[in-house]
Amino acid sequence: MLINKKIWCPRAKTLNDPFEFHFHLRDKTIAGIQINQASLEEASKSIKELGVICLSEINNDILMWSHYSNGHTGFCIEFERSENNDLGKWEFCLPVAYDSINVPSFDPERITERGAIAEIVSRKAPNWSYEKEWRLIISHEFANGFIFLPAKITAIIFGCKMDYAKRHAIANILRGDVTYFEAIQMKDSFCLDIKPLVF
């Protein structure tokens, strides 16, 4: 990824939460006409075929470092978010809402509206709220493959247990084009301190 400037874009259905892009219709009829169950299932499958790049607005959560960086031995990538790149476009990149235990629920007439789709792809259970996630939604044709990075890499944060040889390997790839930080394990609290690092 760092060398080729490409990132894997998984389909929503392959993520670890089975409730990804899940929704519920309040009614099974439109204007008194029964909705075809096969069509409804096809719509649900189609939404889960969308690609999604998962990002976070925080860089110091100990659980995420444990889950997503192989027990703090990996690294975190910071991207630039601006109106000139995909991360700055609200129609593609939006924050996740964790405000309800219920999945998004709609009247059938609304299911194709942009607002309804946005709610489906950006709602997760409150259990996930510590992640403070943002999502970049990618069309079906590019899902389950590599896409070019959606924005410039601005910083690398090394995990507190990351091997020094691997840190230097990353610095040799990116050189001075980014800022480097390291996560430091605090001695008096269950926290990480993100400190600048100079090679």
Please provide a written account of the structure.
This protein is of the alpha+beta class and 199 residues long. Helix content is 19%, strand content 27%. It has one domain (6-196). It has helices at 37-48, 62-68, 114-121, 164-174, and strands at residues 6-9, 24-25, 29-30, 33-34, 51-56, 75-79, 93-95, 105-106, 133-138, 145-148, 153-158, 179-185, 192-196. The strands form 5 sheets. A 4-stranded mixed sheet has the order 6-11-12-13, with no helix packed on it. It has a 3-stranded antiparallel sheet with strand order 5-9-7, with no helix packed on it. Strand 3 (29-30) and strand 4 form a beta hairpin. The mean pLDDT is 93.
The gist of it:
With 199 residues, this protein is of the alpha+beta class.
List keywords for this structure.
three-stranded antiparallel β-sheet; alpha+beta; 13 strands; single chain; 27% strand; four-stranded mixed β-sheet
DSSP summary, beta strand count: 13
Average pLDDT works out at: 93
Low-pLDDT residue intervals, each spanning 5 or more residues: none
**Major beta-sheet overview:** 4 strands, mixed
The percent range for strand residues is 25-35%
Structural class: alpha+beta
Bulk shape: elongated
* Count of spatially separate domains: 1
| Computed CA radius of gyration, to the nearest angstrom | 20 Å
Q: What spatial order of strands do you see in the largest sheet? A: 6-11-12-13
Helix share bin: 10-25%
Number of helices: 4
Along the chain, the helix and strand elements come as EEEEHEHEEEHEEEHEE
Distance between the termini: 21 Å
